[in-house]
Write a structure and sequence with these properties.
Blueprint: E1 3-10, H1 14-23, E2 30-33, E3 50-54, H2 55-63, H3 67-71, E4 75-77, E5 79-84, E6 90-93, E7 104-108, H4 109-119, E8 126-129, E9 133-139, E10 144-150, E11 153-164, H5 171-175, E12 180-196, E13 203-209, E14 212-218, E15 224-231, H6 235-240, H7 243-254, E16 261-264, E17 268-277, E18 281-282, E19 285-287, E20 293-294, H8 302-322, H9 332-359, H10 365-380, H11 382-392
Parallel strand pairs: 1-2, 1-11, 2-8, 5-13, 11-19
Antiparallel strand pairs: 3-7, 4-7, 5-6, 9-10, 10-11, 12-15, 12-16, 12-17, 13-14, 14-15, 17-20, 18-19
Helix pairs in contact: 1-4, 1-8, 8-9, 10-11
Length: 408
């Protein structure tokens, strides 16, 4: 007889593991299935990418018991500078305009992964199986049945609720028959760590270019995280350039805002696509994170959006649990509540990131003029900067309890 859980989470990356950490302390029995070891070179969630965590995301991680392990390797974002390469206009965003001393923090995905792996064994109600490759999913009126392969061969588990957090190419989404729409930006993000000559002082820089944004994020030990979006056809050449030549090109694109670039770390890359599911729930099932919405990295909102998915679903499941042990975590009413709550935030964030990506890759003079006017408006009108900052920090609309700094 297959073991039964309250919730089975398929995908143990950034979002899926965060949800397990949220549900574990509530006494909700969770099975977490991940196909790739967090220590594997091909594990995409725990690589060298820099995550720009918004203020609300930092609060969520605090509520999940992860922030103390992350904080010592996190760097505060104390200023954000936004410009367009070769055009006038500079927007300087200061958290002091909102009465804050920082917008959020920057942390390596690898550091976050280490904190999660340290936390999961302490959660007695979470069973973490890795590597575990899901091979089949069936949904009936009362439960989800998941077949998977682990080191012991074919296995099967049952759960009242199935959560798909298995990335943009989600097996769960496909198995549930949920349609999605996608857009190829024809861009590739090249990422690495660099060491500049001058202290970054917590400043983050985003420069829009025709091939995509060029972002430099503050990091620990005087380093910075570089995210350089290039045309897809140029990605191979950029990855193969000698380190010194790559640094020279990056310097030319960035300018001397931090002096000379002195060192470069290992480079990696990933193609950029928008993938948006047309639905996020089915009976006994929900998809979240990149399985529901994989977005362009402009504005660094992808993981923050996924964490807000986690916070809302965890809050609703906590409420169901508090109602009594007989409460059904997979009830369609609960899932419809989740979907309705998340709709506005998801749609707004997707429209914002997709709109920026398309606007700044549009070569027409009219689009160029609109971009310049937009930057100048944000540069000179404080209320516009405040609206932009509030959106970026995840404090628009109905805020889940974890994002507000409250416990579940």
């Amino acid at each position: 007889m297959a073991e039964h859980f309250d919730v089975v989470i398929v995908g143990g990356g950034l979002v899926g593991a965060s949800l397990a950490c949220a549900l574990g302390p509530l006494g909700i029995r969770v099975a977490l299935l991940e196909a790739v070891s967090p220590r594997a070179e091909i594990q995409p969630s725990y690589d060298d990418r820099t995550l720009a965590l918004s203020a609300s995301s930092c609060r969520i991680l605090q509520g999940l018991g992860l922030w103390d392990s992350v904080r010592e390797n996190a760097t505060p974002i104390r200023e954000i500078q936004v410009r367009e390469h070769g055009r006038p206009g500079l927007v300087v965003m200061d958290p002091g305009e909102l009465g804050l001393d920082r917008f959020g923090h920057v942390v390596e995905a690898r550091v976050f992964g280490a904190a999660v792996m340290q936390r999961l064994p302490d959660l007695e109600s979470v069973q973490f199986s890795c590597p575990a490759e899901v091979t089949g999913i069936e949904i009936d009126e009362d439960q989800a049945v998941v077949d998977f392969l682990d080191e012991n061969g074919a296995q099967q588990i049952r759960a009242s609720l199935l959560v798909g957090a298995d990335g943009a190419r989600s097996f769960v989404r496909e198995s549930l028959g949920i349609d999605s729409e996608s857009h190829d930006y024809r861009q590739t993000a090249v990422i690495c760590n660099i060491t500049p000559e001058q202290d970054h002082r917590g400043r983050a820089f985003e420069c829009f270019t025709p091939s995509g944004p060029f972002a430099v994020m503050p990091h620990v030990n005087g380093r910075c995280g570089l995210i350089w979006c290039v045309a897809a056809e140029d990605a191979g050449r950029m990855m193969e350039l000698p380190a010194e030549q790559f640094l020279q090109l990056a310097q030319r694109r960035f300018g001397d805002h931090l002096g000379r670039f002195l060192k470069i770390g290992k480079r990696s890359s990933y193609p950029l696509h928008l993938v948006r599911a047309l639905e996020d729930i089915r009976p006994r099932a929900v998809i979240l994170g990149n399985a529901a919405h994989a977005i362009h990295p402009v504005g660094a909102q992808g993981f923050n959006l996924g964490l807000r998915d986690v916070a809302v679903l965890a809050e609703l499941l906590a409420g169901a649990r508090a109602a009594g042990p007989q409460a059904d975590p997979g009830s369609i009413r609960l899932l419809q509540h989740y979907s309705a709550w998340r709709k506005k935030d998801q749609q707004g964030t997707i429209a914002y990131s997709d709109g920026l990506a398309r606007l700044y890759s549009n070569p027409s003079p009219l689009a160029g003029t609109a971009r310049t006017l937009g930057l100048l408006a944000h540069a000179f009108i404080p209320s516009l900067r405040r609206q932009l900052a509030v959106r970026a920090m995840g404090f628009r609309g109905r805020i889940p309890r974890l994002a507000a700094g409250e416990s579940l």
